[in-house]
DNA sequence: ATACTCGCTTCGGAAATCAAAGCGACAGCT
DNA sequence: AGCTGTCGCTTTGATTTCCGAAGCGAGTAT
């Protein structure tokens, strides 16, 4: 295969930072996961219930990704019983204002889905 | 089982608006596409070049989705030659500040990928 | 006439995501 | 001691999404 200049083109790219951000946020559930944790620490099962529709396997993947990226931290509380909780790191918390803004934007500009509650 | 019905949980769930937002933004390339258009109108080919890595088929899908959601508009300029350009609607423009904030966040909190340029 | 570019669409195959089941460790009954 | 349930995952196999490459019709350039 010819060495695509893919690598070279990467440089002059529009907004590199935005690209980096959406490597994480552009994946399904990442944003919502962070949003959920914005409300405070939570355990695995708690998150899987809070974020309706996500499967355990993907939730597990996302938690690993975001942990690796340094946005969330996994804390094991020695018991008994032993419990696991995930929480935002400082980096993660720094993103919350942006998510809030997106949330506010959605309220204003995204079709209101018949308030059933 | 406790009387916690799923229905109840649905209501008080995290943030419905954020969920709506990430139905769009949580898909690959959506965020970057909006970011690109934030710099001004652009044609299909222009976008496909600006957003490195996206395939024509997916770009086409995303443009359709975001157009349907009312974030971008497809304008056909009668020629000759006939040209097509996509641009942000007001709703779309309203999201740009949030994207900028995310971009700034990424610069601060996301691993600087060795400036190769 | 030949060879481009543009704005797509179509066609496989590869990757992401899904629901469901299972597992080990523990807790709460009885 | 059993039985049942919760928690934090992982595994399995099917479905959905995404990708790269090719193609197409229309127009432009040489």
Automatic annotation (TrEMBL), chains A, B:
Keywords: DNA-binding, Transcription, Transcription regulation
Gene3D superfamilies membership: Winged helix-like DNA-binding domain superfamily/Winged helix DNA-binding domain
Record-annotated HTH hxlR-type domain positions: 11-114
Pfam families registered for this protein in UniProt: HxlR
Molecular function GO labels: DNA binding
Protein name per Swiss-Prot or TrEMBL: Transcriptional regulator
Organism: Nonomuraea terrae
Lineage: Bacteria, Bacillati, Actinomycetota, Actinomycetes, Streptosporangiales
């Amino acid at each position: 295969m010819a060495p695509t200049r893919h690598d070279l083109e990467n440089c002059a790219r529009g907004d590199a930072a935005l690209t980096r951000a959406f490597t994480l946020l552009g994946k399904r559930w990442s944003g919502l996961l962070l949003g959920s944790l914005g409300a405070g620490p939570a355990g695995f099962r708690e998150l899987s219930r809070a974020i309706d529709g996500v499967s355990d396997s993907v939730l597990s993947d996302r938690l690993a990704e975001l942990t690796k990226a340094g946005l969330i931290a996994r804390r094991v509380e020695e018991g008994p019983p032993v419990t696991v909780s995930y929480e935002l790191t400082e980096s993660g918390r720094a993103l919350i204002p942006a998510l809030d803004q997106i949330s506010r934007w959605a309220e204003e500009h995204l079709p209101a889905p018949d308030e059933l509650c």
